[in-house]
Amino acid sequence: MTQTPAFIAGERVTGADSYENVDPADGHVIGEVLRGTAEHIDAAVAAARRAQPEWAATKPEHRADVAQAFAALVLENVEELARLDSEDTGKPISQARTDGQVTARYFTFYGRAIDSYYGLQLPVDPAFHVYTRREPLGVCGSVIAWNYPLQLFGRAVAPTVVTGNAVVLKPADETPRSAVRLAELAVEAGFPPGIINVVPGIGAEAGAALAAHPGIDHMGFVGSNAVGKLIAGSAADNVVPTTLELGGKSPHVVFPDADLDRVALFATKGILQNAGQTCSAGSRLLVHSSVEDELLERLRASFESTTLGPGSSDPDLGPLISRKQQDRVTGMVERASGRVVTGGTRPTGSSLGDGAYFSPTLIAGVEQDAEIFQEEVFGPVLVSRTFEDEDEAVALANGTDYALMAAVWSRDSSRVHRLAARIRAGQVYANAYGAGGGVEYPFGGFGKSGYGREKGYESLDAYTATKTVLVSL
């Protein structure tokens, strides 16, 4: 079988050690993946360190042009990229195709933004001419998750490279192929060899080596809270800034005057997209007791009309990433308190039994201190409980250690703004919900959801440092 290589200094790098890449739709082996080592990370960081100064010296206009050319090339190859991600993750091909299009959008957006990203003049003291410069940090490391391989590549890499940095990226163990292909296309688009490097491998090996590498000037991570702590600890040992996106337990807060049909539509999409394997999935439903029965019935019908199957058949819901994740979801559902309204099982049958599938699941009456109310399931599981007034709704919404996203459903605009201010979350939607929002909107959380912001204009600040220049007049 072909081996998914590393891509270092513009070259494909293979090796003797590898591991199997498994399609979660049916368990068959797609191919082998290079098991990246600390030596591969060393080589990638060295390549980035060599290439970065010359790249940083180019005009923003040039970096913008290259980013735009890369975006166009991603769109030209979106079917190939979508197929790779659909096979690696199991997600429906249409969702993978959208991921590819959003990846291109990252490079388009940041390619345009860098043209107007300047420092400031500070006319504080007439005896001095004072101004600031935004300068690249140098070489940035990034470890991304397996749920959105294409999008997370764009989210991490685009703002990094347009600001003049080089990057070494470690894709998730399970989903390495699209990142390597994107790095190849980046060189074709005009990024110098060494500016974008990809090293696949096992997280505890290649990922740990990257996070602890003394040649890294910034570290980014998307994944679990437990691993995020390790990444941040390693970076802290080298006094390296980090950006962490560690997950969420995001609530829909539904008041009696909400449009329940719209709630059901967006709540279904918010938890079933990518089989619920989304950090910003709307996984908790907080509904006023007076409309609970009506909303649960709408959601039950919506969940039970969902189609399941392999990503290549483009169903509503594909498999989970692995059997391991299927076992984890099953265990959390079996331990859950409350009433299972629908789902709660692994589907059986010749077409689904071999894959890592889990039925769309709705559980009502879950206690606030229950594991399934407090912790990420990372599966197509929505848990529900009721409230009686605004104060109780806010207490429930803020009643977990996570604080990534939330949605408020009400026609009362004053109530919407009151709750948007009181709910602790990095993004708050009103009468809509989009897992993660758009490329243009700052994204990140509080508490165990991590720190720092990605996306939007703020991301440019994360990958640069302010230098203040004071000239005596």
From TrEMBL:
UniProt name for this protein: Aldehyde dehydrogenase
Range of residues in the leader sequence: none
Lineage: Bacteria, Bacillati, Actinomycetota, Actinomycetes, Micrococcales
Domain Aldehyde dehydrogenase: start-end pairs: 17-469
E.C. no: 1.2.1.3
Gene3D superfamilies: Aldehyde Dehydrogenase, Chain A, domain 1, Aldehyde Dehydrogenase, Chain A, domain 2
MF term (GO), any: aldehyde dehydrogenase (NAD+) activity
Enzyme class label: oxidoreductase
